[in-house]
Design goal:
137 residues; mainly alpha; 4% strand; elongated
Amino acid sequence: GNCLIAAMLCSITGFYLFGMYTSPYMIPGAPSWLPIVGYSLIGVGGMGFFQAAFKAQYAFPFQDPGTGKTAYHRQTLIIAGVTTLGDASVCIWLFFELAYMQLGVPLHYLFLGYAVVTVIVSLALYALWHACEDQVL
C-alpha cells in the first residue's frame, strides 16, 4: 500500500515538473534542472509501481485438490504481464515524441494525460492490493 502511494506521488510530481516546464503556466524563471528532477521522479515512481504490481500474482487463490494447499491461478501469466508492461513502458516516450514533434501536442497536455492514467492505474492496483492483503507474500 505505502509503496504504491509513494510511487503514485513520485510519478505525478515528476509528470508535473517535466511537462509543465515548457508550459505557458509554469512560473517564470524556473530552474533549468527542473525537468531532470521530474524525469528522475518518474523513474522512481515507475519502479515503485513495478514492485507493487508483483503482489497481483496472489489475486486468484484456489485450493489445490492434489495437495490441499493454497495455489494461485494464472500466477505465471500475471508475472509475465507485469514484467512485459514494465519493459513496454519505455515506448511511451516514443509516442510522446511523435505527438509533440509531428502533431504539435503541447508537452503539458501529454503529461497531464499521463498523470490521469497514472491515477486510474494506481486506484486499480490499490484495490487489487486490498483484495490480496490476506495472502502471504
